[in-house]
Amino acid sequence: MLAHIQGALDRQEVDVLREAMAQATWEDGASTAGANAGEAKRNEQLPPDSEISRALGKRLLSSLLANPAFVSTAVPLRIYPPLFNRYGVGDHFDPHVDNAIRGDAMTGARIRVDLAATVLLSDPDEYEGGELIVEDIYGSRRFKPPAGDLILYSAGSLHMVTPVTSGLRLASFLWLQSMIRADEARSLVCDLDESIQELAPRVGADDPDLRKLATVYHNLIRYWGDA
Predict the structure, then answer these.
(1) InterPro entries given for it (predicted)?
(2) Which of 51, 52, 85, 114 is the most exposed place for a label (fewest CB within 10 A)?
(3) Which residues contact 97 (CB under 8 A, 6 or more apart)?
C-alpha cells in the first residue's frame, strides 16, 4: 500500500507544531533506527519519551484520527506514539525496512507494524534534497510534498530519505497496526469506502444500493480483520 493524503494537517496545526519544535531540545535520531538501520541513519529527533514529544504526538494523532481519508486508508487499530525528526545539511536515512514489532518503553504496549507514515512539516522550498523514496510494486516513488501532507506506506517497503543539501526538513513519523493486515485487502476496503463516500451525496443515504455497499464494506472488515 502506498497513499499520499493531501492536507492531513491544516496550516494552523503545522505552525503550532513547528513553533513548539523550535523551542525543543533535540537528540541523535539513531535510537529509533532499529538494530539493522542505525549506521544508515543520520538525523535528529525529539527524545521519544520527553514531555514535549508526547504532547505534540497526542495533538498530531488527534488531528489524523479526525481525518476521514487517513482513517479509511489505514483502518488503524493501534498507533505507536508519533515521533518528530529534523534533517539538516548532510543528514539522510539510507534504504531500509522498518522493524516488524515496536514496543513503547513508557506504556509497555507492543504493536505489529503494518504501516508507516511520514507527515511533512516543512514546505519543499525550505530545503534541498530530503526526498522520501518508497519502493512498491510499481517501482520507486519519490515524495517531497507540502507541509501537512502525509505519505502512508507498507512498513515492509524499502524506503529512504535522500541527503539534505541545504535548509532544514521537519517531519513527524509514526507506525500503525491496522485492523486489516494484508495490504491488498486493505486497499480494496479503502476503495470501496471512497466509492461509498462519493455516491452518498448523489443518491442519498437511504438509497438501497448504497446501503448494500455499506453492508459489504463492514462485512469485509469483519472478514479480513485479523488483529
Answers:
(1) Oxoglu/Fe-dep_dioxygenase_dom, PKHD_C, PKHD_hydroxylase, Pro_4_hyd_alph, Pro_4_hyd_alph_FE2OG_OXY
(2) 51
(3) 36, 155, 156, 157, 158, 159
State the binding site for 2-oxoglutarate.
Answer: 169
Domain match, 29 and 64 both = yes
Q: Which amino acid is at 33?
A: A
Closest to 39 (Cα-Cα) out of 118, 117, 92, 103: 92
Query: Where is the binding site, in residues?
Result: 96, 98, 159, 169
pLDDT at 35: 55
State the binding site for Fe cation: 96, 98, 159
Q: Write down the H helix ranges in the chain.
A: 11-22, 51-65, 68-74, 183-203, 208-224
Residues 164 and 203 in one domain: no
Locus of grid cell 520507486: 140
